[in-house]
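Bumping my old thread because nobody answered last time. Still need a sequence for this structure:
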């Protein structure tokens, strides 16, 4: 009985300290204002993931931005550029019903494909360079999605089995996958 009382007392103290620090264990997802419900929910989640990815990398120095874990890995800066390229691709795919044209392939292809060419060429740029590219792409995404509604989200993309909602869900979950990859790489950087 005495052990249970001490455990309960300790739990109450921890709970009190936790609450008094104004820390919550659960976040809330609400639709972003100014958007239809489903579009706003996906945007809310994408923005949260972008914030968390950005927080993970924003203070990287050049050596950390260009760190290569092994010969098959990708550099943190290149991964940020990749996230922007994928998002840009889905802008074109969902809003214009097409893939990249030749000019866009030249601009985004190396980052979109992430391979040996990106390991060799996406180097020596500060992390802010990559984050600014992603910020510009996101700004365009938010502008374009503001013009759409939940009916558009449900529509299938011409020539595809996927609908617009799934396409933008994929952009979001793609960010989550690479957030994990980035965090793994950052933990392996020699201190």
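Sorry it took so long. Here it is:
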């Amino acid at each position: 009985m005495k052990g249970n009382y001490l455990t309960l007392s300790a739990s109450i103290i921890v709970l009190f300290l936790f609450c008094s620090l104004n820390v919550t264990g659960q976040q809330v997802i609400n639709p972003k204002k100014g958007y239809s419900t489903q579009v706003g929910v996906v945007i809310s989640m994408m923005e949260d993931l972008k914030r968390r990815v950005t927080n993970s990398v924003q203070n990287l120095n050049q050596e950390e931005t260009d760190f290569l874990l092994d010969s098959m890995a990708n550099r943190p800066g290149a991964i940020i550029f990749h996230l922007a390229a994928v998002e840009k691709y889905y802008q074109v795919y969902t809003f214009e019903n097409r893939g990249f044209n030749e000019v866009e392939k030249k601009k985004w292809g190396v980052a979109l494909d992430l391979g040996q060419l990106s390991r060799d060429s996406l180097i020596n740029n500060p992390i802010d360079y990559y984050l600014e590219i992603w910020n510009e792409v996101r700004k365009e995404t938010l502008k374009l999605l503001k013009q759409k509604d939940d009916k558009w989200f449900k529509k299938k993309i011409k020539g595809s089995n996927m609908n617009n909602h799934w396409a933008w869900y994929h952009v979001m979950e793609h960010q989550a996958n690479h957030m994990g990859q980035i965090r793994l790489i950052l933990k392996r950087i020699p201190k």
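The radius of gyration is 21 Å. Let me know if any region looks off to you.
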